[in-house]
Design goal:
77 residues; alpha+beta; 60s Ribosomal Protein L30, Chain: A; globular
């Protein structure tokens, strides 16, 4: 998921620093332990991390275990 986020933001000529908010839905809330280390790798500076919300969503369809959306503002270059 975080690799995909990085690809999308880079395709828009941005960086993770441009991300304002990230929302994550987990089929199994216990999987949060797998999300947190990746979160810290992508956003190592605690003073500049985007807002994050993580929700338990047992009804994710199609075998999906995790889903996310993020909002970013990328300055025009």
């Amino acid at each position: 998921m975080f690799a995909n986020i990085a690809r999308v933001i880079q395709a828009a000529s941005g960086t993770p620093a441009d991300i304002l908010k990230l929302t994550v839905w987990l089929k199994n809330l216990g999987d949060r332990k797998h999300v947190n280390p990746e979160w810290l790798r992508m956003f190592p500076d605690a003073s500049s991390r985007p807002a994050r919300h993580t929700f338990h969503e047992p009804d994710l369809s199609g075998g999906i275990l995790v889903q996310c959306e993020f909002f970013a503002v990328v300055a025009e270059k």
